[in-house]
């Protein structure tokens, strides 16, 4: 009986040691990036349905030569499932490093894990995955991008400072359902507005970050809420679509409806100059040079901060004309 107890306690100890070893190993086993003259770099873009996405892809392609990358790019045409298979195909092609803007927070996690298991360091760019499942510094090297909660908060603060009416009747146009910018831009804005009794979000619906869908959604919500006097769009493309819908309905965006947005596209800055849009909080798409720099640091053996945060400016009628020439 005594031998059995000893054997059992030995087995329990061995099991706990192996679990500890696994978790320790997984906590530390980010794939390294060896020093090389030229790297095979994968950039798995989610879609090219708006100027922001097109500018981001161009930024990576423009950087490839300067950074001596053998760059492989794919375009998932708006399908998270296709983006997963694009990543798997890059893994099969033996890329050295992966830059991935996950279209939605959950579907891309398994692909991130497969890249790690294949010994490929992954950097998430401009969108992230569900932090409760996959962690920077453990499952992928880092997230490179803006603080989307802060963007939403700044949009709300600007609205509170510039809305002239007594009661704000707000329509919110959300980005792609399940994406980190949509989740966080909503949280940032809504949490501020929840503290102000004179501000009511009467409707909040996804326009998938797309201009035409943003226009269609705004047309529908305008029927239900003709008294809307503030539109908060999670990106400029949907804001421009909303402006089209409002004008078609005889409203005067910038005069009888305050338009509040995020990104900083050329069309948005022009709409601000024209007096139709009030503000757009910058969310830069120019990730190429930053990707080159962070990757080099990682190859040099530096510990990369889990969040390589991009700082954002804010564009209003005071400065839109000054920055429109550099806009995309
Ligand atoms: C933000 C990015 C968003 C932009 C949209 O980092 O993920 O996706 O704000 C784009 O314009 O579609």
Record keyword descriptors for this entry:
328 residues; Rossmann fold; six-stranded parallel sheet; six-stranded mixed sheet; 12 strands; binds beta-D-galactofuranose
Task: Describe what this molecule looks like in 3D.
It is built from eleven helices and twelve strands. By secondary structure, it is an alpha/beta fold. It has a six-stranded parallel beta sheet, sandwiched between helices. Strands 7-6-8-9-10-12 form a six-stranded mixed beta sheet, sandwiched between helices. 44% of the residues lie in helices and 18% in strands. The structure holds beta-D-galactofuranose. Beta-D-galactofuranose (GZL) binds at residues 50, 52-53, 126-127, 145, 181, 209, 235, 237, 262-263, 283. Residues 50, 52-53, 126-127, 145, 181, 209, 235, 237, 262-263, 283 line the site of beta-D-galactofuranose.
Bound molecules: beta-D-galactofuranose
Helix content: 40-55%
Structural class: alpha/beta
DSSP strand content: 15-25%
Classified in CATH, the superfamily of the largest domain is Response regulator
Number of helices: 11
Count the beta strands: 12
How many domains comprise the coordinates? Answer: 2
Q: What is the rounded distance between the termini? A: 77 Å
User: How would a textbook summarize the main sheet?
Assistant: 6 strands, parallel
The radius of gyration over CA amounts to 23 Å
How would you describe the shape? globular
The topology string of helices and strands comes to HEHEHEHEEHEHEHEHEHEHEEH
The first-level CATH class of the largest domain is given as Alpha Beta
